[in-house]
Amino acid sequence: MVLNDEVHSRPYHTLQVPQRASFLAMLAQPAEREQEYAHVAGLCARYGCQPPPPEANFYAADCGAFRLRWERHGEFSSYTVFEPAVGGEPFALAAVNSLPPEWVAGLPGSLVVAAHVALMPGGANPPDIEAVSAHFSGNTLVGALLADGSAAAFTDFRIHEDGYSRFLLLDRGMGRRRAGRLLQRLLEIETYRMFALLALPLARETGARLAAAERDLAGITELMVTQGSADEPGLLDRLTKLAAAVERELAAGSYRFGAARAYYGLVKQRIAELREQRIPGIQTIDEFMQRRLAPAMNTCESVARRQTELSERVARASDLLRTRVDIVREMQNQELLASMNRRARLQLRLQETVEGLSVAAITYYLVSLVGYVAKASKAAGLAVDPDIAMGWSIPVVALLAAVGIRYVRRSVAKEHSRR
Question: Rounded to whole angstroms, how far apart are CA atoms 162 and 382?
Answer without folding.
Answer: 138
